[in-house]
Every structure is written in C-alpha cells, then in structure tokens.
Amino acid sequence: MPLVRKNPWKTLQSRVMFAACAACTVLIIGVLGLVTVYLFSIGFGATSWEFFAADPTGNALDPGGMRNAVVGTLILIGLASLIGIPLGLLAGVYLSEYGTERLLPGPVRFVTDVLAGVPSIVVGILGYELLVVPLGNYSGWAGAGALAFIMVPIVARTSEEMFRLVPDSYRQASAALGATRSQTILRVVAPAAAGTVVTGIMLAIARIAGETAPLLFTALGSRFLTTNPSEPFPSLTVQVYTYATGPYPAQRELAWAGILVLISIIFVVNVSIRLVTLRVRRSPA
Amino acid sequence: MTTAVQSSPRTFGRGDAVLGLAARGSALCILGMLAALALVLLAAALPSIRTFGVGFLLSTDWRPNEIVGAGLDAAGNEVEVVSPPSFGGLAVIYGTVVSSALALVVAVPLSLGAALFLVRVAPRLRLAGVLSFLVEFLAAIPSIAFGIWGLFVLAPFLQHVVEPGLKSLLGDVPGLGWLFTGTLNIAGEVVTRPIPLTGRDMLCGGLILAIMVLPIITAVSRDVLRAVPRMQIEGTLALGATWWQSCAAMLRYGRAGLFGAIMLGLARAAGETMAVTMVIGNNNQIEPSPFAPAQTMSSLLANEFAEASDGLHRAALLEVALILLVMSLAINILARSLIVGGGPRAAAAH
After folding, report:
1. Which residues contact B283 (CB under 8 A, 6 or more apart)?
2. CATH homologous superfamily of domain A49-282?
C-alpha cells in the first residue's frame, strides 16, 4: 500500500487548474496576438510610399500622406529628450551617488515614483496651463515639455537602478587613486553603467513615442510640414486619433498606416533594448 | 616622485561643486514638478471648488450650457426660467470606477493564471524567454493603437454579434430587463426605452481596458511569483501537495505583491485615456447597464477640454483632472508600497 494515498478529487482539481493556467496564457497571447495581427495586416495594406512622401492635402477623399506627422513626432521626441534625458540622468545620479545625504533622497525617490504614475492626460492639462496659456498659442515647445515631464521619472528611476548596480569597489578604487567625487562619477561609474542606462532611455523614448493624450492640448496638431516648434505641431499619434475618429474612410485607412509606422518604431526600439541588454550581460562589466 | 593625478586641487573642487549642484538641482526639480502639478491644477480648479463645494462629488449634472425653460414665478405667472450651467463629477467618477472594475474582473484571473504558467511551466518548455518578450512588447503598444482596434474591430463585433446574442438570450429573463432598457430625460419627462446597441459602451470600454492591463499585471505578478523562495514550493511538494495546491501556496505567499500588481493595473486602467475615449460612447450619465454608453474622467477631459471656453466649465474640468490625479496617485502609492523592489519595471509600467 502506498505511503500517501492520492486524493482523486485533488488530483482532478490540480489537472483542471493546470489546464486553466495554460488556457489563460494561450488566451492572453491569443488576444494580444490578434490585436497585433490586425494592426499589422490592415496597416500594411494601407501603407504606401505616399504615406512618407506627401503631406495631408486637406481633401478628405484624397488625404495624401502623413510625412508632416512622422517628421513632427521625431522632432518632438528629440526636443523632449533634450530636456528630459539630462534632467532624468542627473536625478538618477543624485539618487544613486548622493543617496546617503540626509534630507532630500527619500522624498525625491518617492516623488519620482509618484510622478511615474500621473495619468498622461493630466500631464497634457498641466502643459496647457503652464506653457500654452502663458505663451498664447498651442506649440511644439508645449508638446515637447509635456513629453519631457513623462520622460523624467522613467529615466531617473531606471538610471538610478543601473548606477546602483556598479559595484562599490569601483568607487573605492577610484577614490583610492585620488579621484574626486565628480571624477569618480563621470569617468568610472557612468561608463560602467552606460550600457544599461541606455536601455532606460530607450524605454522612455518608446513610451513617449506612443503618447497621444499629453499632446492633445499642447502641440495640438497641424496638417502642414513644419520644423518651427513655436507653432502648433503635428504628431503621428494626434493625427491618427483625428483621422480614426473622423467620418472619412480614406483617412481611416491612413490612421491604420500611421499606427503601423508607430508600432514599428516602438518595436525597433524594444528589440534594440533587448540586444543592448544581451550584449551588456555577456561582456564582463 | 610624480603624483598620480596632476590637475590642481582648485579644479577638483570646481568639478565636484558643479556636478553636486546639477544633481541636487535636478532632484529639486523633480520635487518642483510635483508641486507645480498639484498647485497649478488646484489653482485652476478653484473657481469650481468654490462654486460647487463637496456637491461636485455628489452631483451627476454635467451641463456646460444654460437651459432656458418655462416656469412659474412667485405670483403664479408664466416666466422664462434660466438655469445656469451646472457641473458635477459623479457620473464620470462612476464611469472610471466601473470601467476599471470591469477591466480587473476580466484581466486578473487571466493574468494570474498566465503568470503561474510562466513561472512554473514555461521554463521547462524553454518558452519563458519568448513569452516574456512577447508580454513586454505588448505592454509597449501605445494606447491609441488599442483604441483604433477597439473602435473598428471590437466595437462592431460587440454590436453585431455579442450584444444581440446576449439580448435574445437574456432579454426576456425576468429581473434582467434593466440590462437592455435605459431611461432618458427629455425636457423633464423621464422616458424608458430600449438601449440602442452601438458597441461603443461601458462593456467595450471595460474590455479594451482589460486587454491593456493584461500585460502589465501578468509581467509584475510573474516577477512576484518568481521571487517566492524555492524552499516554499519544494516544501509543499514534499508534503504531498498536488501541482495546484503548491501553486495556491505560492499565490498565498506572494499575496501582498500580487495585490500590488493588481493595483498597478488598476492605476493604469483608471488613468488610461485614448483607447477608452474612442470606445466608451461618451455619455455623461450614470446608466446601470453595461450596454449603455458612458464616460470616464479621462475621456471627459479628452473630449471637452479643448472646447471649454467658458471659465467655470474649464475650472470644473480641472477639478475632474485633480480628482483623477489624486485617485491614481493614491492607487499607485498603495501599489508600490506592496511590491517590494518593484524598481525600474514598476517605474516604467504605467
């Protein structure tokens, strides 16, 4: 006689739950796969050379392309990065390297986490109140400011984690060689962490590339190609939103194509993050 | 003898001072960002807070325009009565709460099941890497993409297949009639009528939110479950537990972190804007039926903020934004306090 008698009911329950867990995984991958396949298949059908080569015509039946929006999104990402990345990195340096100070680090870390949870539409409204109302018009600057606001906490927290991963023996060795604190941070800690810090930055870029809500009341959108951030500024996401919720089939087609381009950008960034992480893990730090 | 480092002590000091200043400045800047957010919203919402007080949270009235109607004055003569614009946030608060709850009801069991599978089974099948990458990539798909899919695929599917099916199945069941009839207030008269099934309703909003929070809840709960010590699992198995019994023990062990994962999902659902705006039907009323169009705080802001020219209307919208901010921050803080070492993923998860 076996030492432990199996309870057939419990065995059955276990089998059922195992199947249920497997089914959950399949269902999640299935649903999300379905969404992705839809986005890609309809998007591919709607994408043409004209999408990248032409600006919107203003004619709803023959809407042209979205060159202005692609350029606009890239410029907005660039401007937001110019503000958001240095600020986020320095805050990350502060949290990791000056984290033993008495007063600030605790509250700053807490507030950074809190900021990461602010709904993006609220950031858009803040951008409107702080940058649109005082400047007098919707502008690319306001849009970039709102996006930078979203970048800062992400870059700060990820770079803090990455700086912390650098072993303390590096800092001690550097100090023992007579380096000052700033030399240690800039020439020893930063290069050692650079590879992984980049992933945090790319994560933030992937995130803001897809943001719509913060741009609705700041950059607003425009159907003209422009490089002047002090006027209303086009972006892929806002233009896709406008087209998708509008009544014209030709514009809806373009919206699907716009989504495809957007997701492709984000996909490329994600894969690069993956590659960078792999490379960094392989090479001895 | 030569010294190892040859620059003069003066420049050392300057470098330290500059970097220290920049780092501390950035840290203060982060504090300033939150302060600016809170103060600006509060200041801009003040006219609405002053006018409506606590009543804002209890009123479902959202009327940006004044209504001119007939009425009687004190002497009994017919006069024109002008009711001023009136604002109350209850309908959109209800919309946010119910749509997020709906999303969690659908997403949580699925996510936990998948997280268990990813931790307990997938590594043996050498699937863990691929599945994890998929889940993470899907978490990065922007809201607007889900919105388009919801608007052109999910909503029509619900409208033409699911909802008529449910209606023919449940419509005649006594006690469930409220699912398919709504009340309409036409010029003071309350009319009951069947809800037109458009597919763009509370159900669709809840489902699209569920799909959007699936990856984040799955990814964070996977991390939580992975952190359950091996000894715990092996201990249960040694005592003769079945596969599921040991899984249940894992879930119990990680319950605080799992609750945190769910709260992170809730925070994302509550603050989510674009996808919901596109599928929820945008109707500022409380309707008990999930097949009726609704409105969330964020979709109200997306729809009306750009067009709000009237001062009080704008202030009321800012009060809604303030409530949304406070609500999602409270959920986020709770979530993060529960997920120990949530770190960069939690920071980027929103």
Report:
1. B292, B293, B294, B295
2. MetI-like (1.10.3720.10)
